Amino acid sequence: MTAMLVLCTVSMQAQTSTTQPKKATHKKVVKKKAESATEREIRELREQMQSQQVQIDSLKQQNADKDAKLATATQDAQAANAAAAQAQSQAAGVSSSVQANTDAVNTLNTNVTDLKAKNETLAQTISDTKKDVMKEIDEPMALHYRGIKITPVAFFAAESVYRQRSLNSDVNTPFNSTPYPGAAQAHTSEFNFSGRQSRIGGLFEGNTRAFKLSGYVEADFLSAGVTSNDNQSNSYTLRQRQIWGQIATQRGFAITGGQMWSLVTETKKGTDNRTENLPMVIDAQYHVGFSWARQPGVRIQQKLGMTTVAIALENAQNIFSATNANSNFFFGNAGTGGGLYNSTANYSNNVAPDVIVKAAFDPKIGHYEIGGLARFFRDRYYPGVTTVPTTGTAGAANDTKTGGGFFFNARVPVTHFADVGVHILTGTGVGRYGTSTLPDTTVHPDGTLATIKADQGLFSLELHPAKKLDLFGYAGGEYAQRTTFLNLTGPNAGKLTGYAPITASNTGCGTETVPSGSTGYNPGVPANCTGATRAVIEGTAGFTYRFYSSPKYGRLQYAMEYSYLTRNAWAGVGGAPKATNNMVFTSMRYYIP
Asked: Is 52 helix (H, G, I), strand (E, B) or coil?
């Protein structure tokens, strides 16, 4: 467009330059000559060209201004780019610094949070420790004397027993004395209250870290002194149940010495003292078929994982029974008062302690035991007493017989609410370890001892239907084998000698006799009634209900049991007598925490 305008302008200027200038005229009024169409067009074109020239000049100026501004803008852009690069570099540095600060802040926040949590935990620990300390001060679980921790053990009992056939006994039942029908007391019942099974004691513990020292004492009042009676004060003597000391290492090795439960007794854990698994009955003589003893001894045990092995040496004693025995032996004597033995009780002259070994297993489910028992019986016999003619003490000598047996215990929780137990002991000369105390030995005609085979068994079922309630049922029996020998010489020549001879008379076991005196304390006893026990069997059912139980205030519980007892004799002349008894026990006890 600019080029065209330039060409037109040049052309028009060329045309204009060819026109001759007008001659000068005098100043006078001259009438303008009217423009022709061509002239008007030329004039308009000239005006347009002038206007366009102005526009062109303006456009040039604008372009120049734009170029100047563009140059300035380019310079500014370059400067801005440089500034942006510098700013980006600075921003990267700032970003890195900000990230570092952010990381530091996050770390600091984490540390503050951890510190806060630790402070809260520490505050809770301090609070709990303070509560524990205050509880130990206000409600100590044990007493402390120097480095010794003393834990009291006690319960206080109000109990009763009813027996259909009187035994003149407290809450402990002499099972093997249940009277046959011919005894006057088989026709009278008895009902007795008792608080004598109440118990006191304590556990004393000293922990040296390298090993632990323990001592335990436990006593009740089921003992009678020469002044004890039920007439007025009902005063009975304190009885030693257990008193022993122990040293134990952290590797499961322990030595215990003193009076304690026999190693034959079933335990709940390993062979540990104070974990004895006793029937839940009220009867202080426990239950027929339960094998046990509490006697002085020494026990050594070692834990090996889930297994514990132990050996014990325990005080021996001989329970003896014989019919038609000759007077040509002895194995013991009544206690000597000066020796602090009971002058009305008999004691055997033991040649060696009883030796008991046991292995106990504690897997995830149940508790199992297997063990053996070795016993030694000695007497002094006089073979010359039975000779004809009698030679008296000639040939007198000591004779030792051995006995022993095997036992097995198992206790299995069949469900969360039920435990089943089985106990078996069998052997010769092991009768005293049964709760019925059937005989260990009898005697040969020549005066030497003979061991009697015995069996003991107990089945138990213990239910826990509720937290406060336990139900229990037991069935047990004990057996002593007939053991007899033909006597060929002496006053009993031709008779069977020993335990439960078949020729013994049982003809009077079912015939009641009149009292033997006028004091009122001499009931009739059967005449012609050997009645040697073959088996004692008992079945029991009962419950224990805990009214209240608190680790702070102790436990109050009530229990009741019913037992049916039978005593079966070996057959003799006149048959095999049988005695039965129905017994009901009740108990209210308060246990200290």
From this structure: helix
* Token representation of residue 143: 């007493």
At 176, phi and psi to the nearest 5?
A: -80, 5
pLDDT digits (tens, 9 = 90+) for 224-276: 988 888 888 888 999 999 999 999 999 999 999 999 999 999 999 999 999 99
Task: Quote the tokens at residue 334.
Answer: 């009544």
Q: Give the position of tokens 């540990």.
A: 272
The tens digit of pLDDT for each residue in 78-110 reads: 776 776 677 677 767 666 766 777 787 788 778
Q: Range of 559's domain?
A: 151-591
User: Of 16-25, 200-209, 556-565, 577-586, where does mean pLDDT reach its minimum?
Assistant: 16-25
In a domain, 54, yes or no: no
* Tokens 């509880």 found at: 135
What's residue 33's pLDDT? 60
At 95 the pLDDT is 64
Number of domains comprising the chain:
1
Per-residue model confidence (pLDDT) at position 393: 92
- Domain contains 565: yes
The reply to whether 117 falls in a domain is no
Q: How far is CA 446 from CA 307, 329, 400, 484, 486, in A?
A: 46, 8, 14, 13, 10
Q: Under a CB-based contact definition with an 8 Å cutoff, are residues 272 and 302 in contact?
A: no
Q: What are phi and psi of 544, to 5 degrees?
A: -130, 130
pLDDT tens digit string along 144-187?
A: 999 999 999 999 999 999 999 999 999 999 999 999 999 999 99
* Structural domain contains residue 120: no
Is residue 26 classed as helix, strand or coil in its secondary structure? coil
Phi, psi of 213 (to 5 degrees): -105, 135
> Residue 199 sits in a domain of what CATH number?
2.40.160.10
Distance separating alpha carbons of residues 292 and 436, to the nearest angstrom = 10
Paired strand residues for 115: none
Amino acid in the structure at residue 290? F
Which distant-in-sequence residues (6+ apart) come within 8 Å of 422 by Cβ?
408, 409, 410, 457, 458, 459, 460
DSSP notation for 53-79: HHHHHHHHHHHHHHHHHHHHHHHHHHH
Peptide linkage before 363 cis (omega within 30 of 0): no
pTM: 0.78
